[in-house]
Specification:
The complex is a heterodimer. By secondary structure, chain A is mostly beta strands. Chain A is built from no helices and 11 strands. Chain B has no helices and 11 strands. In chain B, the strands form 2 sheets. In chain B, strands 2, 4, 5, 9, 10 and 11 form a 6-stranded mixed sheet that branches. Classes of the chains: A mainly beta, B mainly beta.
């Protein structure tokens, strides 16, 4: 099993640019989560999907952030326009149906720096 | 709103000593997770606790859950340097996990 795959691993870009983060969940997992981790705010849930459908996006900071999951094997998190305060590590995680009681499996994260 | 509080946030201990990390949460939940994160790395699942009185052990780590007290503990026995990491508890409600701030553990020789 390849695990959750995120790309890119590192992204440095200038303020105002569009940033797209990508995630491939573990095959067969029904849930996909996007998190942001910073020293100041810790680990924050941004949005999560169940069977490709967004369930809760209340953690998305503002309209500049959007996430999609066009199919079971791919999701994107987009920031447009980006701002320096968006600098953080963004994690994608996936899990099987909660009835099976599985923990979340995290990707290696994307380290985003907005200059 | 669910609140998850861990303490201590920072813990420095000597090898061979025992210690306990606490995770308190504010709302009834049917499951709790413990994760480990090494510096610059991702989060790795350690334990899944599902019911009141649940106890799980892996090596020198033991986790327990008291749903009535809304408290989980992570007990470290005879700490070794390899256990140095940040430990997070996460409380799940209807598929959505809320994480504590993490406890950064440093084990010194």
């Amino acid at each position: 099993d390849a695990g959750v795959i995120q790309s890119p691993r590192h992204e440095v870009t200038e303020m105002g640019q569009e940033v797209t983060l990508r995630c491939k969940p573990i095959s067969g997992h029904d849930y996909l989560f996007w998190y942001r981790q910073t020293m100041m705010r810790g680990l924050e849930l941004l949005i999560y999907f169940n069977n490709n459908v967004p369930i809760d996006d209340s953690g998305m900071p503002e309209d500049r952030f959007s996430a999609k999951m066009p199919n079971a094997s791919f999701s994107t998190l987009k920031i447009q326009p980006s701002e320096p305060r968006d600098s953080a590590v963004y994690f994608c995680a996936s899990s099987q149906d909660r009835g099976r009681v599985q923990p979340q499996h995290f990707g290696d994260g994307t380290r985003l720096s907005i200059l | 709103e669910l609140k998850v509080e861990q303490n201590p946030l920072f813990l420095s201990m000597q090898e061979g000593k025992n210690y306990t990390i606490y995770c308190n949460y504010s709302t009834t939940s049917d499951r709790l997770y413990w994760y480990r994160q090494d510096p610059g790395k991702s989060l790795e699942s350690l334990f899944v606790l599902l019911s009141n009185g649940a106890v799980k052990q892996e090596g020198r780590l033991m986790a327990s859950l008291d749903t009535k007290a809304r408290l989980s503990t992570l007990h470290i026995t005879a700490a070794v340097h390899d256990l140095s990491a940040t430990y997070f508890c996460a409380v799940d409600i209807e598929g959505k996990s809320t994480f504590g701030d993490g406890t950064t553990l440093t084990v010194k020789p």
